[in-house]
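Researcher: Go.
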Amino acid sequence: MDKQSLQKLKLMLTGIAQRLKDEKDYFIGLEGSFKSGTKNFPLKCTLKDDNLEIKFEGRNLSAKTDDLPDILSDFASRFEAVSLVYNARGESLIIDADARNVKMRTKQLEANKEEIFKGHAESGTVSNREYLIKPGKADELLKVIGIMADNGKIKNDMIRKYNQIDHFVELLEPMLRELANGRNELRIVDCACGKSYLSFVLNYYLKEVMKINCRFTGIDISEGVVKSSREMANRLKYHNMEFICGDIRTLLYEEVGGKVAQPDLVISLHACDVATDYALAFGIRNKSRGIVAVPCCHCELLNQYSYEPFKEIIKHGIFKARLADVLTDGLRCMILEAFGYRVSAVEYVSPLDTPKNLLIRSVLTGKFNREKYEACINMAKTLGAEPMLLKETVNINKS
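Model: Structure:
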């Protein structure tokens, strides 16, 4: 692998190492394959106490988490291509690297039902929290999306996810009331919807608790997850939900019959890296009255930006990665404001639950502001970067 690819790989591994430190209780293991010609050399990495145990090329190494980027990038320097899979509870991060490109993507995992089928001590009471999506009233929903076991108990390994989606609804409720004011129905689009857990929960809360009519459209490029979401909607008899296989980079929102319409709310939960930008651009392009996103896996700007006054700070990979997260989401908020949105950014759960805990909420209150948009462009130029959301929106409202 060439020097440039190795640098990109090391930056991604720095982010992986930090994530491992933050989420070591959820870390399962890291596996890899190093390719040279027709031969593949496997790597396996596990966590024992606070040390990493690495098995590679017949050797057993013990290392600190902070040493992982240096060790793996050194291994990679002797090979043509590398594939690494970081496995944590409920999620995998996959890195593929060669001389042409270095990419990272996220894959949601199905939890092993035999391992997580554990009833909580008291039905309806979890973590001493008063839930909006209440056990005893939303049991059918909670079972279908995998949070509740068949015996009516919340699964122990699903409490964290349960907390996340419930608090997500709590933070969205004032916005939902604002959007529903004067409307007979809310039209909601879930971009890169995956298994659509959030849409199912919001649908329940809007219809059963807030008594607001709603219609959901879930969009994902994967036929498999679209099929799964359709099956869950049928089990729940949610006939107001549809799921389509499509590319959010090019789609316009259409009513039944093909008429282009303005959605009331566009949501995106943990869409990986630039998929969040495509979701935000979908909302902007379709003039959605509200846009909500929880970003994930900030890699694009990390591999692009530099800033001379901060040179001595961001020479440390971990600081560069953390600053890239802030810059990425800060620019996203700036661009939304340029298109007339009132924006707020908050932590929606504890960082102990997940480091990817930023919630961006925006409501359309004004018109496109070219001066603000030019400020976004200039900010990106200052950083030597070309953020995907700028590229996706540069021709919107162009005159």
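Model: Residues 3-108 form one domain.
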